Amino acid sequence: MKAFKKTLSILLALLIAFTCASVAFAAKDILVFVTVDGIKKTLYDSELTVRAGSSVLDVLKAAGLDVVVQQTEDGARIVSIEGDTEKTFGGSDGWYYDLWPEETYCSTPVDKKQVENGDCIEVYYADRAVGFQKPIFHEQLNEGFIYLYSNETDPATGEETQVPVVGATMVIDGTHTFVSDENGKVYLPAELCENVHTMMLERYAENGLPTLLRAEGEIGFDPTLGPNLPVGSFLIRLGNWFGSIIDRIVAFFKGLFK
What's the CATH code of the domain at 162? Predict the structure, then answer.
């Protein structure tokens, strides 16, 4: 019996030590997902581990990006990333960021906005004054098309509506090019509605200004795997799910030691 109690005590001590170490680690490091869309290409798209309490600016620097900011009375404002500089097109074009799922079109300075575990940070070059859309995919491959739209809020009523993404170029497998019609639909031949294919979606104004948040990943259907979400969407959901599980575990063990 004494041997059993001693073994049990050792196991409990090890469990407590492991738990405390896990809590301490979780308190220091968080996992975020970062996408940076420049003028002509995606500059960064990956998950990243950063210190808890990091700001959006800290995250961009941790990603190894060349970021130039201007200090204002309120905080730092992004001037350029990897040489893509604001007002390249002579308007109100420049750098914006969204922090999904918490906030869209964030106005907080990048050095003041803290990120949380599981956040998806989207930093992009745009001019919202001339229109900018974040595409949402609705695959209807059994009917031969993909429906592209964005959720827009009516400033007068506050109601959210679906707005078709018109005139976007979709390149599949690097060789097949399609353009979304006035209803936001991209019609595909039967052979591209089967199996899994790579996809790139983008849209630009005549002067080269990006008017759409780029999207790339996979579309299609693999009978052995089921429907495939675009890679970015899958990573976001996986990261948020994993982060929420970790947060719950940490909160549980913290509660035990209160």
Answer: 2.60.40
